[in-house]
Fold each of these.
Amino acid sequence: MSAFSRPVLLLLCGLMLLTVCIAVLNTLVPLWLNYQHASVWQVGVVGSSYFTGNLLGTLLAGRLILRQGFNRSYYLAAVLFALATQGLMFSTDLTSWLVWRFVAGVGCSLIWGVVESALLCSGSATHRVQLLAAYMVAYYLGSVVGQIYVGLLPTAVASVVPWMVMLIVFAVLPLLCTRLPRLTQPEHPVHVGKMLRKRSARLGINGCVISGVILGSLYGLMPLYLSHSGTSDADVGYWMALLIGAGIVGQWPVGRMADRYGRLLVLRVLVFAVIVACVALLSVGHLVMAPALFLMGGAGFTLYPVAMSWECEKVCNEELVAMNQSLLLSYTVGSIVGPSVAAALMQTYSDRVLFVLIAAVSLVYEEKRSPPQTVGGINVTLGWLISFCLPPRYCSITLLLPGSGAAWRCESGKRYWLGLTRQGR
C-alpha cells in the first residue's frame, strides 16, 4: 500500500503554497525593516518575535489537534497567518512589526504541527520515513519558489502582501476537498515535559536546538548580511534560493547515509560540514560563496529531519504528537535564541560574527555529546577526516569500536566500512 494517499498529497500541496509565503516574508521582512532604517538589533528582535510565536504555537498545537482535529486546526492556523500577513501593510513602528510577526509565528507553528503530526500518524514506521522526506522536500521546494519570487517580482510591501494573502487562501482549498483522520483521545495523556525528560531523547532534542539556532540565524539575518555586503534584493533572493535548494538536494542522500551508517554518525558529520562552511564563508574570497552556501544548506537543512526521525522511531503511536511537539519546541527555542544573540553580536562587532556564532554552537554540540569510544586515543568519528589525509600508497589504518561491531578501515587512500551493527543508532 502506498504511503502517499489522496489526503496526504493534498496536505503536501497546501503546505507547499504556505511555505512560499513563509519564505518570501522571512526574506523580505528584514529588508523592509532595513529600508525603514531599523538597526540590526531591532531586526534581530523582530525575528525573535516571530520565533517566540513559534514557541507558543508549538505549546498549543497538541491540545488544539486533539480537540479540533487536523482539518479545523489547519484552517485556524491559516487564518492567523493571513491576518498577520495583511497586518504588515499597516506596520509603521517597531511595536506593530513585533505584534504581527508574533501572530504569524503562532500560525506558522500551528501549521507545521498539524502537517507533521498528520503525516506521522498516517502510516507505519516504514511509511513515516518516506512521508517525512516528502514533507521536507515540499517545504524546501516551496521555500526555493519563494526566493525565486523575491528575485523576479517587485518587493515593495504593498506589492507583495496581497499576493501572499491570496496564496494562503489557495493553500486552504486542498483540505476542503478531503478529511484527515481524527485522533482518538489517549487513555493516559502524554505531555511534552515527559518527552523532554526522556534520556533517549536528548540527542534528537539537542540536534533540533542546534538546527533551530542555525536555520533561525540564517533565515533572519542572512538576507541582512547580504544586503549590507552590497547585494541587490534580486540577488539576495537567488543566494537564499541556492541555500535552501541545497537542503532539497541533500534530503535523499543524507537519508540514505543515515539508514546505512547510523543517524548518530551522520548527525556529527552534518554538524562538522556546517563548521567547514562557516570557515569558508569567513574567508576573504568571494569565489567560495556559492560552494560554501551550498554546503551550509545541504548540511544545516538536513539536521532537523535526521534528528526528528531518530526520536520518532523510539516512541509508540500514542506518543507521536507529544514527541513531535517536543522536537518543534526544541527547534523553536534555538530559533529564538539564535537570531537574538547573533543580531546583538553583529551590531557590536561585525556582520561576519554571524558565521562565527553558527560555527561555535555547532562545535559545542560536537563536544557536549556523550564521550565517544576511542581506540588508542583516536576518536572513531575522525575516520572521515583521517581517510582523506592518508598518503595515497602504503598506508592503512583500522579503527575498531569494542562491543559495537563497528570498524573503519582506510587503505591506500580508499575509504570503506568493514561493518557496523545497529547498536546506538
Amino acid sequence: MLGIKADAVMGDEMSTCASGHTNDEGAKYCQQCGLVLDVQAVAIDRNFNVAVSLEPPTHTRVSVFFRLFLSIIPSIMSAFLGIVAVFATIASWFSALITGKVPEGIHRFVARTLDYQTRATAYSLLVTANYPGASLTPRANNEITTSVANGPLNRWAVFWRIFLALPAALLTGAGYVGLLLLAMVTWSVALFTTRAPRTLHQASASLIRLQSRYTAYCLLLTPEQPWHGLYGDAQDVSPEDAEQPGAQGAQWRFVKGTRRAITIFLILGGLLYVGLNIGIQAIAMHLPQYDYFCMDEMGNITSKVSLSPMNCPDGSDLFKMRINGNGWVGYAPLSDADL
C-alpha cells in the first residue's frame, strides 16, 4: 500500500518505509516516521490503526497564523464525504446483519474517507504540516496514515451498535472539546516557535486517534472500542530516550508528561462539554415561545395556525400566545405589521 521494500543489510533483513527510513526486521511501523510497514501484522487486531510521527513537525509562521483559513476546504470536503459515508454505512449495516461482514467496496470507501478526515483534522490542529490535498488515495508523503482490516463482525454487536457506542460517545465528546482547547494552546506556542511542544503534540495525536477510532467503530469499520490505546501503546519514555531510533512512530510511546496532558485536557473538555450543554438548554428554555391561533369575535378559538401561511377564516382574527413550561401566559392580537 505504501511502496514498502525489504533490503538485506549486513546479513540482516531490514525493511524500508516509503520515506526511505531503514527499520529492523519484524517492525510493524517505521521507527522514524510512523508509516505502516507490515499491513497484515498491523491489521491483526482489527483496530483502526493510525500511524504518525510523535516528533512534532516544523511549520512556517504564516501557515500557523492562517491555519484556520487553510483548513476550510479540507473541512468542507470532510463533511461532504462524511455524509456520503453515513449513507453507505446504513446500507452496510443491513448487509452486515445478514452476512456478518461489511461489503468490501463500502468498507474500502468508508476507510479511505475516514483516512482523509483524520489527515484533515491533524493538519488543522497542527499535528501535521503537509496540506491534506483532495485525494482519498494514500500517498507516500502523507505524514499520517491509517489502516483497518475488513473482517467478520458479531451480528448482535452490529444490531446494537448505536447503544454500544454511547459510553465511548461521552469520552469522545469530552476529548473533542479538550482537543480544541489543546489546539488553542498549541497554536499560540507554534506561532512563535514554529513547533508544538512534544508533550502537547503527542497529546493532540492521541486525542485525534480517539476521535478517528470512535468514528471507525460507529461506521462498522472495526469491532474494537475506541478507547484502547488512549494513553499510548507502551510505557512512557524520557525526552532523552525519545530522541533515540525506535522511540517514535506508531508504537505510540509517549514522553513523560503526555499522559498527564491528555488527562488534564480530557477533564477540562468534559467540564466545558457539560457546561455548554447545560447553558444551551438553559438559554433555550428562557427564549420566548408562542402559539398562534385564530379567534372569532365571541372569544372562541376557531383554529390553530402554523407559522406559514398565517391565514384565518373570515370573521376571525390572528392572535399569538406566549407559552412556557407551565402553559399559556397570555395572548395578544397580531397586526399585519407583526407578520
Amino acid sequence: MAGLAPAKKDKKMNKLIKNGEIVTATDKYKADIYIENEKVHTIGKDLKHKADETIDAKGCYVFPGGIDAHTHMELPFMGTFASDTFESGTLAGLYGGTTTIIDFAIQSKGETFNETVDKWHKKADGNAVSDYAFHLGVTDFNEKTRKEIKDIVKKRGITSFKTFMAYKGALMVDDRQIIGLMNEIKPFGGMVTTHAENGDLIDELIQEHKEKGNLSPKYHEITRPDIAEAEASGRIIDLAHSGNHPLYIVHMTCEAALNRVREATKRNQKIHIETCIQYLLLDTSLYESPGRSLPILHGSKKNGRKRFFKNSKWYARHRT
C-alpha cells in the first residue's frame, strides 16, 4: 500500500472525549481521551486538559478509526464507473467509523506505474475527507514497468501490488507476469494481492450461455462456479510458495477456495485473505428474487450455494 496521504483538513482543534467506554483490540474500559493536533495525546480517568471541543461520550463506545483496505473510488471498469467519488465515498465511510481507506490505483494498458499513481492522486488529493493510501493494480507488467518497482516502493510508498487472474483483455495478467512481479517486489518488501478466478474458464462459460440465450442475472453466478475460484486460489498459492513470497487473496467467496488456503497452512505457508459481507449473508437464491430485492438469508443454503465460511469461519481465522 502507499504511504498514508492526509485528508483535506480544516483548522486543527484539540478535543477531549469524556466518559466513553474505550474498546481496543484487547481491552474495554471507561476513560477519557485527549486529542492534540489530530493525535491521541493522553488516555486516563477524569482528564482536565483544556480543549477547543469537549465531547460527552457517556453511554457510548469509543473505537479506534477503522481501516478499509479494499475500496474502489472513481474506478473505470469495463465501460462502467464506480458511483462514489473520493469525497462521497470517504464521507460515507466516516459516518460508519472508517477513518482510512486503501484504494486501488489501477494501471491502464500502456501506462507506466508512476503515471497511474499520479492519475489516482489527482482524483484523491484535496477531495478525500479521510486519510487514504493506495495499492497499485498491475495490468501491464513489462520491462519498462519492472524498472519502476524500486521507486514505486521507496519513493511513492506503495508496497502492495494487485493482479487479476480474470477479465482477459482488460485487467488480466498471466502467470509469467505474476511470477515476474513477485520476484521483482520481493527485495523491497512488497506483496502481491490477487483477484483469484480462472478467467479462461469463466469466459468460456459466459460465451456458452450467451449462445444459448441465457442472459438473466442468475447466469452471472452460474458462469462463475466455485471451481473457478478454487483453482485460481490454489494456483496463486502455489506460485507464491514456489518463491517463498507473501500473498493476499482479495474478496474470497466460497469454502472451496478457503480449502486451498487450509491445505497450504499444513506446509506453514502464511496467506492473508479477505471476504465481503455479502458472502457471509447472501446465497444464490437472491438471483431468483423479483426486482432488485436482495434477501438476507440467515444460515440458508437454498439452491446449493453455501454462505462463505459457514460454521468454519472461526477455524479459518485461527488457522490462516
